[in-house]
Amino acid sequence: MSGRNKQIPNNHRGRYTEPVPTSNLGDNEEDFPEFESFDDTTPRGYAPSAGSMSVQNVNMLQQMNKPRHYTNDYDISHLVVRRGQLFHMEVTFSRPLTDSDDFQVEFLIGSNPTASKGSLVAVTFGHRRGGSWSGQILERRGTSVRLGITPTATAIVGRFRTYVAIVAGGGMQRTRRNPDTDLYLLFNAWCPQDTVYLGNEAERREYVLNDYGVIHQGTLKSVVDRSWIYGQFERGVLDACIYILDQSEMPIYDRGNIIKVVRKGSAMVNAQDDKGVLVGNWSNNYSMGRSPTSWTGSIQILLQYANTGTSVSFAQCWVFAGVFNTFLRAIGIPARIVTNFNSAHDNTGNLKTDLIFNKDGSADERNSRDSIWNYHCWNEVWITRQDLPAQFHGWNVVDSTPQETSDGLYRCGPASVYAIKTGQLFHPYDAGFVFAEVNSDVIFHQRTQYGTLEVTETLTDLIGEALYTKAVNSNGYTDITHTYKYREGSADDKATMARAEQYGCERDHSELPENQLSITLIAEPVMVGEDVSLQVNFHNQGDLNKTVNAHLTASVVFYTGVVAEHFKALDFVAQVPTNQTKTKVLRIPAEEYFPHLGSQVSLRFILTGQTDNQSVTGMKVLNLKTPSLNVSVEGPKRVGQVMYVTVSFTNEINFRLEKVKLSLAGPGMLSDTDHYYSSIEPLGSITWTVEFHPRLSGSRTLVAVMDCDNLRQVMGSVTVNIMP
Fold this sequence. Notes:
- There is one protein chain.
- Helix 3 (237-247) crosses helix 5 (299-308) and helix 4 packs antiparallel against helix 6 (317-330).
- This protein folds into four domains: 35-186, Sandwich (Immunoglobulin-like), CATH 2.60.40.10; 210-502, Coagulation Factor XIII, Chain A, domain 2; 517-623, Immunoglobulins (Immunoglobulin-like, Sandwich); 630-722, Immunoglobulins (Immunoglobulin-like, Sandwich), CATH 2.60.40.10.
- The chain is elongated, with a radius of gyration of 30 Å.
- It is mostly beta strands.
- It contains eleven helices and 40 strands.
- The strands form eleven sheets. Strands 1, 3, 5, 6, 9, 10 and 11 form a seven-stranded mixed sheet that branches. A six-stranded antiparallel sheet has the order 22-19-18-16-25-26, sandwiched between helices.
């Protein structure tokens, strides 16, 4: 073999004495032998007698531990506990335990476990010093011993294997590998020493334990509430979340570090540059997967990813945020989804969103690199930033939608919300990018007859119009805009913007003459298939009459602000008397926009006006309303009893719906179920009934979604109170 073609083996030699363990759920763990000699000269075939004592049984006491650790809802056959908090286990020996007996409980995670890295923990119960976890004997009853074990608040998060070893003579006699005694260790929002500690009980139950959420979409004038099933307690979901970390090849011993875990999760939820969970698709073609609007929640996505090992198609920002929220809550991290209305994108960390127009007033899409998303969804996590001063603890932004790279990967955060509000953008991670998303100025440029660009208008209050998140104990919203930014134009706001510029955020400081003419566009939301009434108001605050040559461009747009298709262009002239407002109402018939909708429901109107010495611009994004599904339930509302859910829909839109898919699911009640119809004619109706048996009690929500080629975002839900 020539030197050119010779293959160099890819191994760890020269970097580590052993390979770095990166698999938690893999089958290649090499556990300890049943007998381990303390003296290398002792024949390894001889086990110590230990006074004829041996371990007969190990009971992880799930019924006692799970309620105390708020893990009772996990549909899993193993013990699930939270770090930094005592849990019980019971060991039955072959004879009663005496004071001279020496034994220890060992917890192992990953391959090549080692005490120095926290992946091997020996818990002792006498005067002999053991590992970092503490242990105590709580009760002796005959041959059984009740033990109390408290993991450290910094312990590795994941699935541990459990052994009991009796120490006697020259070695230790261990129990055999028994998967039934494995335990899952999670972050603990109830533990003050944990980096995810959250002091408010109502918020802990909302941001860690709630398996159902509401994601806000649309525009601020027409907010759409999308139900989303997080389903962090459903069978297979916790394992799928650990599998994500395995796929990322994240070292086992880093999995107790909150910053490293959320940063790795942010990268892995998207598949942009790794073997991540979701493939993004911002188009009208979803033939190679499922439309982002068709998902009921995270469960089906995570299980498909874990079962196939391949990325799932397709997602847009709320899907990335929904799945990331499930990942975070499943492993115990307090998390919520935030929607930013009028979100600036592709800013690469500056404070300028540049929109370019041609001389005739039409949008120059080829040269406009920036865009304004109607809304953008990201996540917040509640964490202690041990790398930063105390004022930066609390809510931090993490975003898994692939937009810009951070340290070479498509991820974002954790960025302190307080740092964003105060403009302290030198702190890690990615605070400058998020700051631009909520604070950019919108700069309107018009191309002159010489081909140069002239700034015609600057809007400082359009971006980051409002930020919403689901309210605690309610399906309504909480406005959290004040946590991200000060009131526009206030002294604090000006100080923040100046500080941000000191740390590299560029702003536009063009000196524009006082604008005596302005335009506002008003359109009330209408149902898909109805005519649109667009009201154009010209405001003349000057002392001279104005003749305005106006150009209107109407487009179907993606929620990202990118044009899907133009459907109307109109020129007209408006005479605006001095110190008056002139109103013109434009009717947009449904037949003009509907053939171009595809899967979109947003229309954008841009009107540019030209006078002798001034250019003005007005913009309006209209989110069309979609019909709803009717969801109802029948039967005894009790755990384990037979119940029925019925989804019904009547097509009151004057067009035929093609290739209809209905999806239905409810955490703790019903797994994802689909039903198909070839078409639904105008005024046609469908009814679908499914039988289910509730698994969990309390307030539970069933979510239904209808998706078809020519109408999307049709949803419905019903909430029922299930008795134990």
